[in-house]
Design goal:
The chain is of the alpha+beta class and 111 residues long. It has one domain. Helices cover 34% and strands 17% of the residues. It is built from three helices and five strands. It has helices spanning 10-27, 41-47, 60-72, and strands at 7-9, 76-80, 83-85, 91-93, 100-104. The strands form two sheets. Strands 3-2-5 form a three-stranded antiparallel sheet, with no helix packed on it. A two-stranded antiparallel sheet has the order 1-4. α1 packs across α3. The radius of gyration is 20 Å and the shape is elongated. Residues 29-58 are annotated as: Disordered.
Length: 111
């Protein structure tokens, strides 16, 4: 992800990442499945390609809200460089070589 500012809040960083991922998802077309029996050209013209289902578009604003909620519930943590950012409105320094890591936390079962 390209970011041109040197300082951003974590909230803005998450928002930009979500918007980029949603745009990529919405732009991708579903891959048609290969079936054993192939429809004729007339059937394809009438019914569409086999195995192709319309993809639902994702609204980025809803996904941003869900991500912010997940962050506040410790659903994931964000590391900027070697430091964990703990508040959404905390500003982070971003340089050309800064690595940002999003770690999704999952509960352990059975222990």
């Amino acid at each position: 992800m390209q970011i041109f500012e040197e300082r951003l809040t974590l909230r803005e960083l998450i928002r930009r990442r979500i918007h980029q991922e949603v745009a990529e998802y919405n732009a991708a077309s579903p891959a048609p499945r290969r079936l054993l029996v192939q429809p004729t050209s007339t059937e394809r013209a009438l019914n569409g390609e086999p195995g192709e289902q319309p993809r639902r578009r994702i609204a980025p604003e809803r996904q941003v809200a869900l991500a912010e909620e997940a962050f506040t519930r410790n659903g994931f943590v964000v590391l900027v460089g070697d430091r964990q950012v703990e508040e959404l409105d905390e500003e982070v320094d971003l340089r050309r070589d800064t690595e940002v890591t999003f770690l999704k936390l999952v509960p352990l079962v059975g222990g």
